[in-house]
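ARCHIVE CARD
Drawer: 12
Card no.: 0347
Subject: one protein chain, sequence and derived structure
Cross-reference: see card 0346
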Amino acid sequence: MMPTPDHGHGPEISPQAAENKGFTSVPRPLTSTSGATAPRARRAKLPPADKFELRRVELAEAALATLADLGYARTSLREIAQHSEFSHGVLHYYFTDKLDLIGCSIRHYKINCATRYDEVVASARTPEALIAGFLEKLGGTMRNEPQMHCLWYDLRAQALFEKAFREDVADIDQRLQDMVWRVVSRYAELRGSQPHVTPAAAYALLDGLFQKYLLRHVSGDPDAVAEMITEVSGLLPLIA
């Protein structure tokens, strides 16, 4: 979605004014016929870069619940606005389109998730303690945040077709692979052995199991989480 030209002659409405007055749309900066934004006028009215980015993250966090409930295909900026306290105009000011908002939302969420098991890795002194702590958190995140994980797999699949997602998805995927490898390599170290697979293979195996049982879990299978934990518990000694 390209920015909408403002053909009026009034002053540009700031995001703060849009939020305070409940505008349903925010006039955008003038654009040339080639699509280039008038840079000086735009920059003069933007908040400082760090404040602007902080606000984007706040809005992206607020949008996550709607994104997770509806998924990529059924979500638009207007739909998100209807399910949140923010107007469509405010969202459109801070995000170019839904791709921009969704990318920011899932990147922020998954980057935080990429350190989920670090405390277990750092504190475990035996392989048994590590695997117990890891499995507890793994099962907990499937039980407590299933829709967020569904959204991630949705967007990762969309990246096969939507070029705008590919860089972010690749970055997040690498972070998650590194997260899994920290668990696997530490488990091997505590056992006095070496991992038997590459980081990519370890991630693919564990992530594949997680996705398989996530589908069963959201489909109402009451045994999905327990069976996943059993599978992962048996897999770790084979790969590390």
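Annotation on reverse: The radius of gyration is 22 Å. The mean pLDDT is 80.
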